Task: inverse folding
């Protein structure tokens, strides 16, 4: 057995549940840190008291979800430790020190965030100090996401496929090649923008609910306006997501081809009850785009504070159009047309909703809040479900990290005795190759090289900056010419 099972529920779904729950809350918390700071600064500079009030209420909400998210994260750690004991031992080999920093950040964030909310009124005379504290939360939150994305990216694209190679260039517990893996940057950018967007749409959704619950004209005006500002912030962060999305899929195509094709073709766990979660997610994103364009078109005619420049709105539409066309070209035009139809349908629905509510956006706010929640869930799910499962990869690392005396107790996903635990003999040359040739590409590049002009190759690599003495270069060249393994 490679892991425990909870009767009736597969361990995989237990982790999936915790993971998705965590994403739904943590992503919103990160986005809210940004939105609260923007609102508070905007309110202060333009002396609009209602935005300050809205920022404060949002911060209370933020404190609550931050608590829920953190406690859920502990649940996830427990579940992983119990159900897949190999997981953390493997992850700690690469990420122990970053995770210690992560833990410290949790502490710092919980205290600062709570303080920021509860001292809102007390620090009224020191508004700039209060704003600074709020702004400080943004980099702290983003640093927390940054570290976790190192792990997240690593599970999708271990990049330097051989664990041993990766570790050669790090220290035990901090493996920077694993951290800065091929999809790290794309995941980072994608999440940074999408989290803010998601939090904004959810806040607008909350205003929508309040609009249904109150008859008071002043309050309605308040929620309509605050919902709008949250909506605009959310929509503004839609801007470059399609560009990032496109390059993200490009990185995946090269570095995580199985995950890429599973996503594109809807294979394996991407299909849930026959529904392709990745396509559905994109369908919903296109719907959000259609609705947002309609909303902007309708509302921006009135003279409102805090608006988005028109050119930005049209750029968003244009970027999405380009994204869908690009995906149409590399994948299938069906994708393009389906997204087009989704955007049109949702635009029509939105027109109807605005009209039937006498231009109140309450129904639209709620609809968009729900859809953005669903896109985050579906996107988070599809991302993790598409990749080869981490636990299946872990066994490939077993011989590398487990001290010899513990080898007999290894948990590998096969019957005992199936895998003889061999200690690989490495030659000096192989060691050199592992050591010096992995800075710029994986060993696979070398293994896949078909010609045998190794003199030339090594010379070129030295010109590129590979550190090799003449003797070492000679050794490696001879070794590679002889076609020996490494
Ligand atoms: C400083 C960065 C760097 C290091 C270190 C490095 N390479 Fe490369 N290597 C490159 C780049 C860039 C390319 C792709 C460009 C090219 O094909 O010329 C490449 C490509 C290759 C290729 C494929 C060439 C082809 O034409 O397909 C081989 C084989 C190769 N490297 C072998 C090695 C070996 C062996 C070492 C260790 C001695 C090494 N590399 C170390 C940068 C490096």
Result:
């Amino acid at each position: 057995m490679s892991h425990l099972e909870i009767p009736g529920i597969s361990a995989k779904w237990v982790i999936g549940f915790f993971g998705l729950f965590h994403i739904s809350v943590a992503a919103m918390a990160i986005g809210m840190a940004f939105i609260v700071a923007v609102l508070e600064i905007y309110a202060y500079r333009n002396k609009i008291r209602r935005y300050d009030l809205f920022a404060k209420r949002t911060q209370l909400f933020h404190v609550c979800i931050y608590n829920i998210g953190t406690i859920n994260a502990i649940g996830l750690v427990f579940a992983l430790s119990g159900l897949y004991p190999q997981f953390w031992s493997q992850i700690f080999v690469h990420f122990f020190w970053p995770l210690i920093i992560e833990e410290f950040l949790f502490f710092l964030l919980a205290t600062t965030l709570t303080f920021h909310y509860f001292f809102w009124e007390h620090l009224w005379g020191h508004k700039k100090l209060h704003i600074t504290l709020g702004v400080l939360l943004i980099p702290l939150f983003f640093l927390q996401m940054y570290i976790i994305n190192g792990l997240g990216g690593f599970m999708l694209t271990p990049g330097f496929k051989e664990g041993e190679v990766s570790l050669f260039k790090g220290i035990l517990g901090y493996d920077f090649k694993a951290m800065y893996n091929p999809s790290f940057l794309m995941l980072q950018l994608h999440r940074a923008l999408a989290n803010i967007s998601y939090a904004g749409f959810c806040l607008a959704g909350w205003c929508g609910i309040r609009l249904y619950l109150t008859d008071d004209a002043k309050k309605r005006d308040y929620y309509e306006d605050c919902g709008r500002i949250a909506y605009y912030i959310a929509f503004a962060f839609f801007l470059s997501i399609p560009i990032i999305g496109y390059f993200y899929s490009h990185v995946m195509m090269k570095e995580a081809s199985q995950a890429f094709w599973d996503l594109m073709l809807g294979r394996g766990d991407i299909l849930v009850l026959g529904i392709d979660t990745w396509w559905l997610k994109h369908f919903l994103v296109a719907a959000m785009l259609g609705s947002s364009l309609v909303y902007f078109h309708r509302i921006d005619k009135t003279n409102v504070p805090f608006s988005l420049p028109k050119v930005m709105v049209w750029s968003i539409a244009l970027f999405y159009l380009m994204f869908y066309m690009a995906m149409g070209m590399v994948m299938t035009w069906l994708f393009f047309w389906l997204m087009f139809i989704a955007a049109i349908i949702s635009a029509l629905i939105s027109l109807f909703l605005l009209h039937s509510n006498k231009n109140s956006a309450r129904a639209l706010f709620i609809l968009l809040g729900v859809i953005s929640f669903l896109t985050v869930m579906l996107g988070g799910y599809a991302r993790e479900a598409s990749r080869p499962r981490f636990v299946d990869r872990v066994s490939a690392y077993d011989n590398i990290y487990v001290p010899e005396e513990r080898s007999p107790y290894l948990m590998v996903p096969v019957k005992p005795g199936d895998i003889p635990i061999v200690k690989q003999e490495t030659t000096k040359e192989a060691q050199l190759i592992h050591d010096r040739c992995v800075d710029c590409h994986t060993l696979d590049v070398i293994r896949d090289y078909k010609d045998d002009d190794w003199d030339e190759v090594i010379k070129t690599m030295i010109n590129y900056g590979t550190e090799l003495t003449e003797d070492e270069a000679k050794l490696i060249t001879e070794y590679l010419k002889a076609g020996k393994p490494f």
